[in-house]
Amino acid sequence: MSPSRGFLNPAPDDWNTLFVVVAFCSIALYNFIELNTIIFTTFKRRSGLYFWSFLISTNGIAPYAIGFLLKDLRLSPSQYLDLTLIIIGWVCLVTGQAFVLYSRLHLVLRDGHKLRLVRAMIIMNAIICHVPTTVLVFGANAPGLDSWDWPYNVYEKIEVTLFFVQEMIISVTYIYKTISFFRVESALHGKTLNRLMMHLIWINVHHSSVRRIDGRWSSCSVIQIEP
Predict the structure, then answer these.
(1) Separation CA 223–CA 227 (nearest Å)
(2) How far is CA 226 from the centre of its chain?
(3) Which DSSP string do the residues of 75-144 spell out, in sequence order?
(4) What is the spatial distance between Cα 93 and Cα 103, in angstroms, rounded to a whole number?
């Protein structure tokens, strides 16, 4: 997922593309409402890293989707308002979800040193990727500043790669430790635990693949805004 300049810039009279944008953004906003309802009706203790990271990443959906609606439907009162909303949503979705994955590692990984390394990786990637990308996005979308296009296009590839590697490290670590844990426990509990293990692994693999698909779609939508 990236706030890319991308290639999706529907013309005002391109109703087919605009309908698709509105449909997907509407689904995202529906999911935003549904997930918030689930969070506040499910969590008994509204504290801790898992709760707050889950809440932040979920609430990143709204500004992200609204920003695209304002941009593509030409409803924004300022050419920078929709960019700001998209950037805020992007930061919450990417790094917020990374902390959701990190908080789940505590279930299967008891090595404090490795957990600290994963946490440091998330924080460093957030600083290295979010800050320069935000500056470059505003520069590349400013009227008359075409010189920002090339550095943004280069850094976008670096940023997407770093976040991809980060998610792969966390996901692979989770899957590996889950398999190791359940391999021992399955000797005592048999097929029931094996089914639970496969279910947990499938959820994690499915989540990673959806994130990559969603990343390709969302990374094609923040483009240069015409003044």
Answers:
(1) 12
(2) 27
(3) --SSTTHHHHHHHHHHHHHHHHHHHHHHHHHTTT---HHHHHHHHHHHHHHIIIIIHHHHHHHHHHHSTT
(4) 15
Distance CA 159, CA 174 (A): 23
Query: How would you class 67 by CB atoms within 10 Å of its CB: exposed for 0-12, middle for 13-18, buried for 19 or more?
Result: buried
pTM of the model: 0.78
Task: Give, for all 227 residues of the chain, the pLDDT tens digit.
Answer: 556 544 455 555 666 777 888 898 899 999 999 999 999 999 988 889 999 999 999 999 999 999 988 888 888 888 789 899 999 999 999 999 999 989 988 888 888 899 999 999 999 999 999 999 999 999 888 877 778 889 998 999 999 999 999 999 998 898 888 777 776 665 555 566 666 666 666 666 655 544 443 333 333 333 333 33
CA distance 120 to 132: 18
CB 156 within 8 A of CB 4: yes
CA distance 79 to 142: 9
113-133: b (≥16 Cβ within 10 Å) or e:
eeeeebbebbeebbeebbeeb
Tracing tokens 């398999």 back to the chain, one arrives at 179
Phi, psi dihedrals of residue 118, rounded to the nearest 5°: -65, -45
Distances in Å between the Cα of 176 and the Cα atoms of 163, 166, 197 are 20, 15, 11
Q: Which amino acid is at 44?
A: K
Amino acid at residue number 196: L
